[in-house]
């Protein structure tokens, strides 16, 4: 009987810990600066991207959905502006080429310097690599 009560107590404790600790990451993520990517921000013809750019301490992320008409690739750069107006690319990532479909976007970017990237540049390209619209999201202009 003692083993049954002990097992029930451990199970209840694990469930409570899961509820408490399971909610923490989403609450903490809201503390980081972010910008919503609206359809008008990155659009070419009927192709557009929606989602969010989030800046973390030593990384950034681009998460959302691409509505790709024709073959398109979304590129993202994490950039740091250094003294003398020198811009340094800390990381680059992209989707794979997507053709005529909606596609989830998840591009993690490393920015392994103190304070992280100060901007993220997003750019759509066609199947041949020709760039279309570019949008810059600045860390310090955000929510």
UniProtKB/TrEMBL annotation:
Signal peptide limits: 1-29
Key words of the record: Signal
Domain of life of the organism encoding this protein: Bacteria
The protein's name: META domain-containing protein
Native source organism of the sequence: Lentzea sokolovensis
């Amino acid at each position: 009987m003692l083993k049954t009560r002990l097992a029930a107590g451990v199970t209840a404790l694990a469930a409570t810990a899961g509820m408490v600790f399971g909610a923490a990451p989403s609450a903490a993520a809201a503390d980081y600066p972010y910008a919503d990517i609206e359809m008008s921000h990155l659009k070419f013809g009927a192709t557009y991207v929606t989602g969010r750019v989030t800046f973390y301490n030593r990384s950034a992320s681009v998460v959302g959905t691409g509505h790709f008409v024709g073959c398109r690739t979304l590129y993202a750069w994490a950039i740091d502006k250094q003294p003398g107006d020198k811009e340094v690319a800390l990381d680059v990532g992209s989707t794979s080429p997507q053709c005529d479909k909606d596609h989830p976007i998840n591009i993690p970017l490393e920015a392994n310097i103190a304070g992280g990237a100060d901007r993220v540049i997003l750019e759509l390209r066609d199947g041949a690599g020709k760039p279309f619209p570019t949008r810059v999201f600045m860390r310090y202009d955000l929510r």
